Amino acid sequence: MSERQDTGRQDAGRQDVHRQDGERPEPIRVMVVDDHPMWRDAVARDLAESGFDVVATAGDGDQAVRRAAAAAPDVLVLDLNLPGKPGVQVCKEVVGAEPRLRVLVLSASGEHADVLEAVKSGATGYLLKSASTEELRDAVRRTAAGDPVFTPGLAGLVLGEYRRLASEPAPAAGTDDPGAPRLTDRETEVLRLVAKGLSYKQIAERLVISHRTVQNHVQNTLGKLQLHNRVELVRYAIERGLDDA
């Protein structure tokens, strides 16, 4: 492997945004949860060798929830089929406890029901275990940035589910309150593009602003609307027709 290639691997796990002191950006903190030790160790090793900071691993659901709270990862790489507590329940609990935590499901199942259940539980992305190491590295990096990441063919399924959910009479808490905080024009613009399925990078390019600024607008919008994750945010936008605007 050339020096250039090796440097690329080491930089793969680092955050896109540089620290204010001018030093190299901090590595993305990752936790790997899988009940198969060989697979879990292999994924953790590959991510560590690619420059990510693997802060913890776990082999069952209860252990995953405890260790995630203690290790404070940026991204939880999560299998769905876990002993003790299923992956979707783990996802609900860890995201509920720390909304900024991103969950990337890494599963052998491509069943639509599993994908949709994971997304409803708060997962940011869903990748099949048939993915290559390079695809996994890219998925973890994009998940850390808040971009929805799905194995090809699943993204359309998830967007269709967003639209179905939006047709149900279940508005987000507080959004019908006349006294609810109002979004700025820029926050509304970002929300409209999120609802259309654009990644944060694509939104940044479209609006000619930084990736970090897009993230900040999304976090501010979540806080104002008392929502917890991108799933709820897209549902809110579609309910109000922002995806067709």
TrEMBL record:
Q: Which domain of life is it from?
A: Bacteria
The cross-references to InterPro entries, in alphabetical order and at most eight, read: CheY-like_superfamily (IPR011006), NreC/VraR/RcsB-like_REC (IPR058245), Sig_transdc_resp-reg_C-effctor (IPR016032), Sig_transdc_resp-reg_receiver (IPR001789), Tscrpt_reg_LuxR_C (IPR000792), WalR-like (IPR039420)
Please report the stretch or stretches of sequence annotated as the HTH luxR-type domain: 176-241
Looking at the record, the residues that make up the Response regulatory domain are: 29-144
Question: What are the entry keywords?
Answer: DNA-binding, Phosphoprotein
Q: Kindly list the positions at which 4-aspartylphosphate occurs in this protein.
A: 79
Q: Where is this region: Disordered?
A: 1-28
Q: What is this protein called?
A: Response regulator transcription factor
Query: Can you name the source organism?
Result: Streptomyces coelicoflavus
